[in-house]
Automatic annotation (TrEMBL):
InterPro entries: DUF938, SAM-dependent_MTases_sf. This is DUF938 domain-containing protein. PANTHER family: UPF0585 PROTEIN CG18661 (PTHR20974:SF0). Belongs to the UPF0585 family.
């Protein structure tokens, strides 16, 4: 598996224009893992964003650097996709950098709704995005580095926000039906739990149970590069 945004977010920072860190609004943060996986994620998302050009509204949870949001918005603009990015606001420098990076990556894209929502997904109920109820909720590389409250909140809030026929789509490393494989994922899981006992690879059966309690069902599992998966949960 590749490390999530919280573990690799600051591995590379790209400065655009001649600004310094004092002018944080011009800084695009680059997470190497997001650069590697954004194209495979886009390829799967093409299966779930309608090709008929009808408007499709997506809420992204835990947008991190903004790389996925920007890549999906650019790659699916012809399909009428509109994205609302979001991130938790911890009232610290890390949060400020993340919000600034999302804006820097996305400000030239007319189908991204800015500013990003300040959203703690562990809180219920989750507020609607400015554009109303989303058709898709997307969350990448959050579940394994989040509290149980945040994971449960993601599913409960998705069940509340999504209309019938809507989808929650998640990306990251998971335990699959009780097994963690290959060994690198098992090692990664141990390292996560050593950092924080509330972190770790969640099992797909556990997530399917959360989905069922929220009126959704796990409908598809897509195997991805680097021992990751995309999971698709349909709202009934």
């Amino acid at each position: 598996s590749t490390a999530g945004p919280a573990l690799s977010l600051l591995a590379t920072i790209s400065r655009h224009s001649s600004s310094s860190f004092k002018n944080i609004k011009t800084i695009k943060m680059i997470a190497p893992a997001a650069e590697r996986n954004k194209e495979p994620i886009l390829a799967i998302m093409r299966q779930y964003v309608p090709a008929d050009g009808a408007a499709c509204r997506m809420l992204e949870i835990a947008s991190g650097t903004g790389q996925h949001c920007a890549h999906l918005a650019a790659g699916l603009a012809d399909r009428g996709l509109q994205i609302q990015p979001s991130e938790i606001d911890n009232q610290d420098q890390s949060s400020s950098s993340s919000f600034a990076s999302i804006e820097a990556h996305c400000r030239s894209l007319s189908n991204v709704c800015l500013p990003p929502m300040r959203l703690d997904i562990s809180k219920r109920p989750c507020p609607e995005p400015p554009f109303g109820r989303p058709d898709i909720i997307f969350c990448a590389n959050m579940i394994h580095i989040s509290s149980t409250a945040a994971v449960e909140g993601l599913f409960a809030n998705a069940g509340n926000l999504l209309p019938a026929g809507g989808r929650l789509i998640t990306y990251g490393p998971y335990a699959i039906d009780g097994a963690i494989y290959p060994q690198s994922n098992a090692d990664f899981n141990r390292s996560l739990r050593a950092r924080n006992p509330d972190w770790g690879l969640r099992d797909t059966a556990y997530l399917a149970g959360l989905a069922e309690a929220a009126g959704m069902a796990l409908s598809a599992r897509h195997e991805m590069p680097a021992n990751n998966w995309m999971l698709v949960f349909d709202k009934s």
